[in-house]
Amino acid sequence: MSAPHDRTLPPTSGRPRRGVLATTFTVLRQRRRTLAGATARVVGLAGLTGLLTTAAICALAWPVFTRMRDQRIRYHRAEEPYPHDHTDLAWVALCTLPLFLGCSCW
Q: Could you list the residue ranges that cross the membrane (predicted)?
């Protein structure tokens, strides 16, 4: 014995029902100004958050950059080759990665 299936009955009015996509676009078209305002606010806040996060990370990493520059100047004055040590930059990148990921997931 087969189980009964749920079947929706066709509409009783003479006109066909609109699809989900057509209904969605109709509502969006009617509320265009509200949607544009909300989109502008979200994009603006996301951009501002990214800018502030980048500025904070640069401010926190500034001592690392200053020390790297001072080492380069010291090696240049001593006329020795400057050993490119990228571990400081790797630490800055690893320590700031959670900030960037947190802001992007927000």
A: 42-65
